[in-house]
């Protein structure tokens, strides 16, 4: 069967005509399969939503309990047939509950990656390579300049700065879903045994992670206190909070930002970031290449990001490749990293 008969791009997103189903649609549709809970992929108003239980919980927490007409959860590896097409979800390693979507029909296998990473992350299931004929991938960091160090390396850099400047607070900007919780968990793994203080906008999703058994350490809300109370503290806030008077409640704060975009020094300078932390929940250039090879796919479709650069590399490797240029997908890291 031709891959386009299983999935093909439409203005609403990737569409499966046999199942009358869209993957990560950018506008309300009758039936949607959602790969993960970030707002550029998980929107309200669909008639029916298929996703992992964790993603459904995240959507309920962030959007509200009535985000869809009906919902159905799938465990990783569980298969469901809709209109003659068999769908299953497989770990993407991006955030809690994130999944790749596999669609099988007539002996052809098409995988939609959603957003993904290959680095270890204690807050979510690790990425699983799914062999396929067509691999539909993101390309957020698809340029050779983007090589991400380990999150442990960057968190130890943060801890070294805390030890060097004990009179100052270290305020870390991190996206509310996934990145903030990953920084919390990495701090635990690196031996930080003090409280971590979190902006109120981070608390609901953080509690949801904890309810799903993710160890994040002693997380406390930021409260009104003398500046000296937060000396040598680590504080997590939303990216936008770093640009507001909220930061002034902390003693001589060292402003930090956790994002793959911090690989670009100009980005850090534009935001006045004193300590850039290159921590990304997306695959870097090398891992994008590695994943494409590992899937064994002969055809690569690219949804968003540096699509043309990745397509050029694929063609040099003898693979069919095309950039879909789907409108509506962004980069949750870029919301806070762009000047």
TrEMBL record:
The UniProt record lists the keyword Metal-binding: no
Alphabetically ordered keywords of this record: Ligase
The UniProt record lists the keyword Ligase: yes
Origin superkingdom: Bacteria
Molecular function GO terms recorded: ligase activity; RNA endonuclease activity
Protein name: DNA ligase-associated DEXH box helicase
Origin species: Candidatus Viadribacter manganicus
